[in-house]
Amino acid sequence: MAFETIRQGRERLIALLLTTPDPVLDEVASLGIVTEEEYEALEKLAEPRERIRRLLIKIQRKGERGCEQFLECLQSLFPDFPPDLQPPGRRCVTQTNDAESLEGGAFSEKNEAENPEAAVTLGTNELENPGGATSLEKNDLENPENTPPHEENDLGNPDGSPSSGEIDPQNSEDATSSEKNDPEKLEEPEKPETMLSSGKGVVTPNSATTPIKDEPENPGTALPSKNDPESPGGARSSEKDAAAVSSKRADFEGSGNIPSHGEEGKTAAGKGNIEDLDVSMPESRAESPGIASSVERNGAETPGAGASVEKSRAETPEDSVSVDRSGTEVPETSPNKVHAGRRGAVKTVLSKLRLRKFRNGKLRLRDLLEISPESLKDWTPYVLGDLPWHFLRKLMALNGTARSTSLGQGTSDEDTSEDEEGRVSGDVFSLREDKSRASLHPLDVLCAVLLCSDSFLQQEILSKMSMCQFALPLLLPALDTPKCTLMLWAMRDIVRKWRPHSLADSRGFRAESLVLTSMPTISFVRLGSCSFSKSKLLNEVLSPSQQHHDFFIHRDMDSGNVPREIADGLVEISWYFPAGRENLDLFPEPIAVTNLRGDIESHWPQFSFLTEVSSAVFIVTESISEKEYALLSSLQGSATKYYFILNSQAGKAKKTLGFLNILAPLLDMKKSQLLVKEQSNNSAELVKKLRSTLQGIMSSSPKSTSIQHMAVTARELGIQVDEDDGECWTALEHVQEITSEIQDMAKYKREMLRLQGDLWKNLAKVEKELCRMKGQRDVSPEDYRSQLRERWLELRRQQNQCDLTSGMVKFISGIGQLCPAEKHHFLKWMKFHLDHIARGNLSSLRAEYKEKCRTLGDDTQQLAELDELISASSLGVEHFLRELGQFYEAECSMVKERNLGNIQRQFVCLPGIAADLMLEGFPMELIDGDAANIPLQWVTDVLTELHAKLGGRSRMVVITVLGVQSTGKSTLLNTMFGLQFAVSSGRCTRGAFMSLIKVAENFQQELGCDFILVIDTEGLKAPELAKLEDSYEHDNELATLVIGLSDITIVNMAMENATEMKDVLQIVVHAFLRMEEIGHKPNCQFVHQNVSDVSAHEQNMRDRKHLLEQLDEMTKAAARLEKQSRVMKFSDIMDYDPEKHSWYIPGLWHGVPPMAPVNMGYSESVCELKKYLLEFMRHRSPRRASKNVPQFIKWVRSLWNAVKHENFIFSFRNSLVAEAYTQLSVMYAEWEWDFRKEIHLWMSKTETTIQNQSPDDLGPGTFEKLRLEIHQILHSGEQKMLQSLQSYFESGAGNLHLVEKYREDFHRSVTFLRHELESHLLCKSEEAIRIQKDRSKIDQLQTRYMKTIEGKVDGLLRDCRERDKALKPYELKREFAKMWKETLSELPLESLPLRQIHKDIHYQLCKDLENRGSLVKQMLHKAQSLLTYQSKPFCMKKEYLDLAWHKAAVEFITQQCTRELEEFTKSLMEECRKYVGQKVHSQGDYDQTYCRELLWMINQRLQENVTGKIRISASFEVDLKLHILGEAASTFQKMHEDFLKKNDPQCRLEELRPQYFSTFRDLYYEKDACQKRAFDFSHQCLIPALWEYMKKRLGIEIVDDFLSSGESIEYGSRSFFQFTVQKKLLEEMDFNNYMKYVSNYEGFVKAWIQTCLISHYRETGGLGELERMVLATIMKKIRDALESSECQDTLTISEFLEQFCQVMCKELVISKDNLEVILFKNTASVRQFSADIQTFLPQVEESILLGWEELGGEMVFTQLQFKPQDEIFKHVFGCGKQCPFCKVPCEAGGSDHKQHFASVHRPKGLGGYSYETTDRLVYSLCSSDVASSKSFKNLNTAFKWHPYKDYRQFYPTWCIQPDPSISASDYWKFIFTKFNHQFAREYNVQPANLPPEWKKITKEQALQSIREAFNLE
Predict the structure, then answer these.
(1) Are 1198 and 1860 in contact (CB under 8 A)?
(2) Which among 5, 647, 1040, 1381 is least surrounded, fewest beta carbons within 10 Å?
(3) Beta-bridge partners for 1810
(4) Residue 583: phi, psi to the nearest 5?
(5) What's the CA gap between 1824 and 985, in Å, rounded?
(6) Longest dimension (CA), the chain
(7) What is the per-residue pLDDT for 610?
(8) Which residues is 486 bridged to in the sheet?
(9) Residue 323 phi/psi, 5° resolution?
(10) Which helix (H) or strand (E) is 1375 found in, with range?
(11) Helices 820-856 and 806-817 sit at what angle, rounded to 10 degrees?
(12) What is the tens place of the pLDDT at every residue in 958-993?
């Protein structure tokens, strides 16, 4: 009892099994001894002993039979398995030693019969040791006594056969190859697996023996024989097939040359194809001639061996035979044994192919589509592990060579060897065995790949195989399951079209899913052996005469002669579909042909299945003996017709015909059911006969069946169906609940998908109308917008009120609640069912349409209705997802409008679900083709979810395709990237779909992206849209959008559509031109399809040149249409090289569909294009950063907004462009300040140097020298800025290519800045020289006076010293005062004359107006003194305007002109005040040039701004000049008087009196005055100089500090500044501030900046730090100067101070007066004096800092010569231009830009505009007006009406963009609503009648609107 054996030997078994626990577990699972669940439970146990112990318990629980099977399994696994543990029925056999059984006589038939195992052992010896087999054979048959019982063979085994433990599977040829090729290294296979992989040990249906040591059961049948050409080494005799090895016994298409018996045996040695015997055989074995000898002897000389095995088979209890109704024995398979063998073979094959890791974790489609470095490489396989990927990649690319498993060869030198001298050694020519590389049979690779693929990849594989016209696997052999599998699910996706002859006349066609199409099935099987290839015969039968195609793999194909290892039992299926051409079609109706690999004896379940489903079965054979007869007779009673194809062989024909005649009545056969291939005939004859037979079958109304119906039969026969798993069925149930309700698709869409019908289309229209304002008529733009917005909201409300229909509830349940695998199945089932229903609907509708065309004639109305119905009768998963999107959009709209709370939301999870689908590879709809609209909120949130799921790693390169409809765009993308865009599913693509392809992590850096986003688009020039008047506009929108989104655009051109393509090219050119205008320059690839000539590229050179010329012409025309002034070429607007970017691709099909395979040329060309695109991306990545998902979302938003506005070029606003532009502006502002700072510092030092120079030094060449220096420093700064600009554009910063067009603006701004600074420096230098020269005259007089005083002091000192009595201090002071008074009275003090400045200015004014006529002279004569005008404000008078030129001088025009003139006057007067202030600040004296410059400024502004717009009277000019010059005269007079006072000689001398007295007193008392002089120098000379230094430098440092502080971002660009100001104003909500901001922007901004500066430094306390830093810098320089050797080495104090002043001449201006006093009578030591000064420096420093601190924050800014507020104002104010309509300031960067623009415009009423008729404030926005049909009139239009859309005719430098969204101007709408009445009172008009919508805007919405507008979200 086996049970007892296990119980008693438990510990021994555990010890034995612990040596190899895992293989034992695998084996018992593969044999089905334990269930999969039990296997997995045991696998989880970590402890091996526990695992084995529990395994034994489970085995015992399975009863006696289970225990027997287990022990048999162990016996096969362990060669030295203890006899007492063997199954009871086997012990008698194995107890006899193999070697001992040979003792005493030859190995005879008797021995074989009595001990079949011994025969098996012998067979193993012969096979596994060829040399040994030969000698052993001789000993056995001729001289057995000479054979030592335990002689070791060359493998080192005593019994002459390798033991399990010593056989290394990696020594075999394939295994060695596998090991080399597999970095993971093969798992160490067990002995049975090694043997099984070589094709030994699998039991066939008739096998009776169980292999011992896993050896072949029959030495005679272990080797293939000649008669089976579809087996590895030839055919086997039917008598010896009994113990055939299933996995080795392949349906082999190689030419076998080893006969098994009879006459063929005589030529065996000569014809043997030894290499094909066993791919796992060691090389030494393969090369040995002993094998051939062994085969010959076994085959020819021991005919009884097979019979004895047959006999033993019947006697062995493990395998049984059953008896059918007729009493015939029918073979039964021992499934466990067959499956065990297969499992081992499968393991080996998977190891060779490196697929073992995918056995459980299946390979997925998205894994395969991943872009990796291999995508750029050649696909030639070099090792076995490359084969699966080669197959899959080639197949995805539709390449006909995908099935080839030939391995590529490197450089080989094994054919010729050379000696050291280079001579060839050995034979040059030899018949050498091919031992180069072992490969695998293509079907083995296919089976392995399918085994390791998930069900969805299997579908894709079979779909692609179908397109290539490859035969498909119908029944997959039992690879990892005990049963074979019907591939029903895998074929679900295949749809075929054909035209049966019954529809030929009507030109109709049928399109149906392949699995649902019923048709006759003809099966071809092989019985026994056959010398010709069945598969090759089928290929010839199915191929048209002019177009041969290999549907089935056969021996003469590439790799077809490689032995199969696991593909035996595979049933393939192929089809023939007619094209409706009777003279060309082979068959009038479709027919299916199946082909069983292997013979029927070995694969009875597959054969049984085929007999059930086939209309006819063709059995190919060469001979029939008793065994075959017994097998065939079991078919008696079958309804299927059986045909025999007999390959006639001499000597066998008679016997075979005899058996056939006996079978004829049993199988109801007729004479026509036998086809004989005579040896004298060629295959063409047989093909002809077979076709004729098949046509006869087709004409006899054979039974038809579909693959879906076959599944029913399969289940009945116990065959697995791939659909029969829980996930698939669960998904199907969900789908059936939905699709069962669908009969009429159009009706279903109306009732179940309600949101996307008219509601969605109307919404789309309203959204576009909101932008285009075409239906506005007389309504105000804002009122019309409000109406449209209300309509939009109403439609959204209607959508939101719709409940989810039952269909949508079920759909959401399907995609939301199912697990990922079920969800994937659910979507696939939805597609299959919907497509099936759609095909049915469309078929009937087309038939109806055709009928009505015939009967109705010219009645087009009904046809139009039917045509619309056909368009509406398409329903796909995208429609359900679209409905979800609309529900989501409607809900979001309600939330935004506060009609719905966040907690009430139902659909918030939907974007996440859609994002998951995108990640799974499902295409997502971007543009709805039916409504021609983008659900923007839905798309945005789906992509945002996608970005989140990717963890922010979402850089993408976007590839799009454009072209005429039905030119194969989707097919091109699917072929190129293996995608699943819908192809001809009832209709063409509508709208645009996007699909995501992952880039492998090891390739992301190189490619510069994480994903490739591929966008497939609707075809342009679609016939169904052609009748619509806006079809061109529709195409234009689509092209603009997709080209705008793309990095690479593929323009697909079918050569037969040349006319349409011209129109398409025009559309494309317009789109590219628009993109170039915003800086986006995608790459363009022109793909010319259906060009097959090899010389196409060369021949079409002229065509390419002609195309480029056409494109250039189109570009010029488009530029004119788009109002572009510059001349442009096509290459200017896009990245296009005619030679590199033009592709010629042959047609898709090779021949005439439906039987045409994909053209190899098509596949290869598309692969080349793909490789080029990836290379292009790789080389482009360092230069241009890829967009990530958030950036892509911004592109979609802004592009779609531009598309909706139509006026693309001037209305395009893109947040990415804005962001890049802002960043560039910020950088430019930094560079500009650095340049300005350098210039200001240089000017400060230069002014100081000039002030330190004497008149002699300021000669005529001084200014020229300065001019040269200015030129050099400006040139250097300009080049530095330009280099920074260049470097920034080359840095690869984000989206810089988008602002490339602005580079020139900034370049020009640098030049403009340089000229501005040059003018400023020259003026300042010239003025500094003039002032210093004027001062020098006074200084020379002062020096003379001081010398006189010093002489007097010196005389007084001598006089006092000579007196006898020492003078007391008060006496000394009295004497000094007396001397001082006398001296001053004696000095001829010359004061500068006081001038009457106003008189000088009046004279200059008269001179300016002297040529203006007598009237002006009279006005000037009557005018009062200029000084009287300073206190009078300038008031406008009616006489200032000359309105005589306007016929209707109405009040409105007067008001307009008056307002314009007031603004001009205010601006001019402010400019003149600024100029006067600058001159006063210089602290010089008045100069006549000041007045001349003022008059030049006034005249210039009058000429620029007024002439041509307003006609002014002479009185205006005179009064204006009087007021400006009067105010200036008063200021200049004070400036002059201050200068005189400061430079009065007596005052200056009085200031020096205390110092002179102090020196006099010290000298008199003979004190050491060195320290006192040092103190005086520090306080009288250094402190004033340092104070002036601080006034010059502190302002510069304040700007530098402020712009680099935390608040600098607010001042970084004009846009940031605008946002900051407007946000602050909103927080304060003070009308007066808004009024100042609107009416006097410049003044407001200056005050704002000063307030911000003061408050910033008050809060941070940073001003004191800055003061200390600036002072510390100069103090260090002073100390360095004092300690320098140049000063220390001087001999006198005079030289010392002169040297010190020289060193510090660029930094400090030291008073010469005070210096002279210090030098008077100073005889101190230089070093002591220097040291004393340094001791006082800390006091000096403290004193200055204390002085600045006492000033306080605000006063500090008044002291500064360099005003920081003015510099920061320049930083943010820009060019100062304002919108001509609403006066919003320009935000463009740089100072010299071509175009002015602003992010947000405001209602014109805020600037004081009112309606002419109602006197109410205007509330329209210019950004709305420019998109409307409204007109305007003003001064510039000479008060004639002019359309707003053409505003650039009058304001060419302004770019007013339409609002990017409805809410863009909410800020100013909110402000206008709040302060409507205050603005009206301020402007003295009526308040505006604002739209009710405006009153709903909240403060939060207002703030959010400017966040979005200024791109600060």
Answers:
(1) yes
(2) 1381
(3) 1817
(4) -80, -15
(5) 43
(6) 175
(7) 95
(8) 475, 721
(9) -115, 125
(10) helix 1369-1386
(11) 140
(12) 999 888 777 778 888 888 888 877 765 444 567 889
Angstrom distance (rounded) from CA 172 to CA 1511: 106
Nearest CA among 1692, 1797, 1710, 1889 for reference residue 1213:
1797
The whole-angstrom separation of Cα 1688 and Cα 1728 is 10
Report whether 255 contacts 556 (CB < 8 A): no
> Do residues 298 and 219 make contact, with C-beta atoms less than 8 angstroms apart?
yes
Q: Could you tell me the CA-to-CA distances from 1104 to 1136, 1365, 1816 in Å, in that order? A: 12, 118, 62
Placement of tokens 């014809």 in the chain: 271
Query: In whole angstroms, what is the distance from residue 1033 CA to residue 441 CA?
Result: 56
Q: For the chain, what is the radius of gyration of the CA atoms?
A: 51
**Rounded Cα gap, residues 1225 and 1303, in angstroms:** 11
Per-residue H/E/C for 358-418: HCCCCECHHHHHCECHHHHCCCCCCCHHHHHHHHHHHHHCCCCCCCCCCCCCCCCCCCCEE
Q: How far is 173 from 165, CA to CA, in rounded Å?
A: 19
Q: Is the CB of residue 1880 less than 8 Å from the CB of residue 1887?
A: yes
List, for residues 33-72, the tens digit of each pLDDT value: 888 778 878 888 878 888 888 888 888 888 888 888 888 8
What single-letter amino acid sits at 1048? I
Q: For residue 963, is it left (φ>0), alpha (ψ between -120 and 50) or beta?
A: left
As a whole number, the mean pLDDT across the chain is: 76
Report the candidate in 102, 147, 310 with the shortest Cα–Cα distance to residue 218: 310
885, two tokens = 């999107």
Condensed to tens digits (0 to 9), the pLDDT of residues 370-410 reads 998 888 887 788 888 899 999 999 998 888 899 999 888 75
Could you tell me which residues come within 8 angstroms of residue 1285 by beta carbon, excluding any fewer than 6 positions away?
Answer: 1228, 1231, 1303, 1306, 1307, 1310
Closest CA to 398 of 975, 1184, 807: 975
Can you say whether the dihedral through the CA atoms of 1105, 1110, 1115, 1116 is positive or negative? positive
Q: Which amino acid is at 1542?
A: K
Please name which of 270, 331, 305 lies closest in space to residue 120, comparing C-alpha atoms: 305
Query: Residue 428 has what pLDDT?
Result: 57
CA distance 1708 to 1716: 17
Sign, CA dihedral 578-580-585-586, equals positive
Q: Are strands 641-647 and 674-677 parallel, antiparallel or unpaired?
A: parallel
According to DSSP, the β-strands at 616-621 and 495-498 are: unpaired
What is the sign, positive or negative, of the torsion defined by CA atoms of 437, 443, 446, 450? negative
**What gap in Å lies between CA 934 and CA 1041, rounded to an integer?**
11
- C-alpha dihedral over 724, 728, 731, 732, to 10 degrees? -50
The two three-digit tokens of residue 625, written as one number: 């003996």
- Residue type at 1338 in one-letter notation: I
For the cut 70, the answer to whether the pLDDT of residue 602 exceeds it is: yes
Query: Strands 1048-1054, 1011-1017: parallel, antiparallel or unpaired by DSSP?
Result: unpaired
- pLDDT class of 732 with cuts at 50, 70, 90: very high
Alpha-carbon span 1307 to 1279, nearest angstrom: 11
683/678 Cα distance (integer angstroms): 9
Compute the average pLDDT of residues 1272-1282: 90
Count CB neighbours of 457 within 10 A: 22
As a whole number, mean pLDDT of residues 12-19 equals: 85
CA angle 690, 696, 702 (to 5 degrees): 115
Residue 1126 has pLDDT above 80, yes or no: no
Question: Structure tokens of 1309?
Answer: 């701004």
d(CA 279, CA 174): 6
Q: How far apart are CA 1574 and CA 173, in angstroms?
A: 104
Report, as an integer, the average pLDDT of 1734-1752: 85
Higher pLDDT, 753 or 418: 753
